[in-house]
Amino acid sequence: ANYTMPQLRSLYDTTMAFVVQIEQSTGKTDYTLRGALFNQLKLFLEKYHQAQTTKLVSTLNHELWKNAEISAARHAALVDVATGKGVSLVLSHDQSVGADTAAPLKQLTLPTASFRVVWSLVLGAGAMQAANLKSISAKHLGLASQSLEVIVAYIPHIKCQLSALLTQRQKLLLDDLDKVLQDYVEHNGKIFGKFISIVEDQIMKQFLEHIDRDVDYDDPTLVLPTAPLKGIAQNTVKLYQVLSPVLPPLQMQAVFSRVFDMLEHKMPSCFKAVQPHTAAGKRRVVADVVAFVDSFHELRGVVDLRGDQLVAHFKSSYE
């Protein structure tokens, strides 16, 4: 028979109550009945785990990399877990979830944070093929990062609630959750690294690759910011606009602080071949960088631009 988790719990409680009554009547512990019950329970859990694994694989294979909707019932249960109220076994019954008539939610809102997620956490060619994507965009990465953040946020709650149900010896198994947590944190860090790579490899290097030939800083009619620096600023702001609806403010701060750290350290080397012949030309290089920093006015107050350090470097080099 195919039982849901709540049905199994009810069957187990009823059967165990029967076993306890027999033991009370005989004055002996019936290891045979208990063993048979535990073996049946073990077989069910193994089958249940296999079914859930198969379902997860199917979900990953059909991932569309779109913002996943969350049923009101599941959202309420997830909030209960995060606030220490426990896990609702009803949610393991798909019919109960499917019968929810309330409008689905676009994001998971917890007391401490909100998340927009996709259900796939896989990056790389496999994810691209599964979702029929020509490329994985910054938005895809942002949604994947949020999905990882959800798991990172929940693992401590899951560990705490499991700890209350386990023996002291069994609690040693919970150390594996710490390893899982670290894996998710590292995976999320790699996604952040992807954002930096987008700006460095696809934006900064593209526009500055031939800046010594593309821009004549000795030209008195030169318009600032020059096309290369204007292109970097516009595309970086565009990345910000793509990610801001997906990532929360703290993550945006973390991502773009690293972006501007990278610009501060990598941009000067791109200007090594830029050597204006006139003092006015050298001043235009500095003015170009100042105009470049000012181009990020939309981001001020949201992320730390650290533009002063970049400008200071160019002033020391060209003035």
Automatic annotation (TrEMBL):
Which cell locations does it reside in?
Golgi apparatus, trans-Golgi network
| GO BP term, example | retrograde transport, endosome to Golgi
Q: Does the keyword Coiled coil apply?
A: yes
Q: What is its main location?
A: Golgi
> Can you supply one Gene Ontology CC term for this chain's record?
GARP complex
Q: Which domain of life is it from?
A: Eukaryota
- Which InterPro entries does the entry link to? Vps54, Vps54_C
Q: Give the UniProt keywords, A-Z.
A: Coiled coil, Golgi apparatus, Protein transport, Transport
Protein family membership:
Belongs to the VPS54 family.
Q: Which protein is depicted? A: Vacuolar protein sorting-associated protein 54 C-terminal domain-containing protein
Species, as recorded: Aphanomyces astaci
